[in-house]
Design a protein that fits this description.
By secondary structure, this protein is of the alpha/beta class. The protein has one domain: Aldolase class I (TIM Barrel, Alpha-Beta Barrel). The chain contains 14 helices and 15 strands. It has a twelve-stranded mixed β-sheet with strand order 10-11-12-9-8-7-6-5-4-13-14-15. Helix 5 runs parallel beside helix 6. The longest helix has 13 residues. The chain is globular, with a radius of gyration of 21 Å. The relative contact order is 0.17. It catalyses: GTP + AH2 + S-adenosyl-L-methionine = (8S)-3',8-cyclo-7,8-dihydroguanosine 5'-triphosphate + 5'-deoxyadenosine + L-methionine + A + H(+); (8S)-3',8-cyclo-7,8-dihydroguanosine 5'-triphosphate = cyclic pyranopterin phosphate + diphosphate.
Amino acid sequence: MHRLMVRGVVRGAAASIDSSSRWVLPGPKLLHTARPCLSDAGSNGDRRTQSPETSASSAAAPSTVDSADKNKSNSERERSQPTTAATASTLSDSFGRFHSYLRISLTERCNLRCKYCMPADGVQLTQKQQLLTSAEVLQLASLFVAEGVRKIRLTGGEPTVRKDLTEIVAQLKATNPLLESVGITTNGLMLTRQLVGLQRAGLDALNVSLDTLRAARYEQITRRKGWDRVMAGIDLAIQLGYRPKVNCVLMKGFNEDEICDFVELTRDRNVDVRFIEYMPFTGNRWDTDKMVPYRAMLETIRARYPAFEALPNGPNDTSKAYRVPGYRGQMGFITSMTEHFCGSCNRLRITADGNLKVCLFGNTEVSLRDALRSPGCSEDDLRCLISAAVKRKKKQHAGMLNLSQMENRPMILIGG
C-alpha cells in the first residue's frame, strides 16, 4: 500500500502511524479568518406530490403522501443500517454510531456575509487548485454511498454560486441508485433562478437560511440586500411541492423578538422553521450573552401559543419538532449548545478543500483530497483512511464554554 500524506489538525507534534500503516502528519493551523414533477423520476426523500390543481395536467402524477406516514418512513430508513461487515467497519464509530448522512461543501465562496458565520473582515479562501473538483466530489460521494450513506446534502459557502450545481445534483442521482435523498442548504438568493432546474435534476430537499422576516434587519445580519428574493424563493419552493426547512439562528438583542413572527410564518405556509442555538466558531465573536437557549424559546412561544405541541422525532433527527395545531407548517429547535444530540449523530462532513470532519465542532481533519491525488491510491486505501477517522470520533463535543476557546474553522469554511 502507498503511504498517504494526510493533511489535518492532529494532536501531538510527532508523526504517528494509524492501524493501516499510513502516515498521519500534523498540518498547518486552520485559518482564522404537492410538487409538479418536472422530471420522470419518482418521488423520494423529501419530495412531495402534485396538488389537485396541477395533477390534472400531468399523466404521471405521483400519489399523495401523508406527512405523518412520510416522517415514519424516514425514521424506519434511519433505523435500518447496512449489514455487511465492510459497511459496518467503515462508517461505524467506536460508540456504535453508523453514519448514513454526508454533507459535502462545494465551495468556500458566498454572496452574503452573515455575522454569525463569517468574520467581519472575511476569510482567506483556499486556492482553486486545492479545492475538490466536480469529478472528485462525485467519486467520493459514490464511495460513501457504497459504504452506506443514504442522504447527501450539498452546502458551501453558498452552493448556488457553483455554475455546475445542477449538473452535480443530476450526476449524484443518476450514478447512485441507493441514494435516497440529495438536498442543498442555501441562503435562497438564487432560488427563483435555479430551483426549477434543480428540481428537474432530481433535488429532493431544501434548507434555506433566513434569520429575520424584516428587510432592514436582513441587511444588518447579512451585510447585503436581498430579503425579498429569499422570500420569493421560499414561496416558489412551496409552489413546486417542497417543504423547505427555514433555518434561523437566534441571537439576543438582535432577532429574538421575531420568534413569534416565525411561528406565524407556519400558519399558511408549509414550511419547517427551525431555530438554531447560536454556536461558537472562529471569528464570530460568540459569547453566552448572545445565545438564546432552547427552553427560553419554548417559554416565549407557549406564552402566546399555549397549545404548542411536540411532535415525534426520528432517531437521528437533530431538530426537536413542534407545531401549533391547525397551522400548515411546523417548528423545530436545534439545541447543539444546551441539549446536545451527539449520542445519535449520524453525520459526516467533507469540506470544500477535501477534508473529512467527523464532528462539526471537532478540529481534527483528514485530507481525502490528498489521498485521492496520491498516485496509486485505491478505493481500499480510501476506505481505510475514512474508517480510521470515523473510529476516532469522540463520544460528544466539548461543551459550549470549551468550544468557544477551541480553534476551529469559521463556519463558512466548514460547510454550514
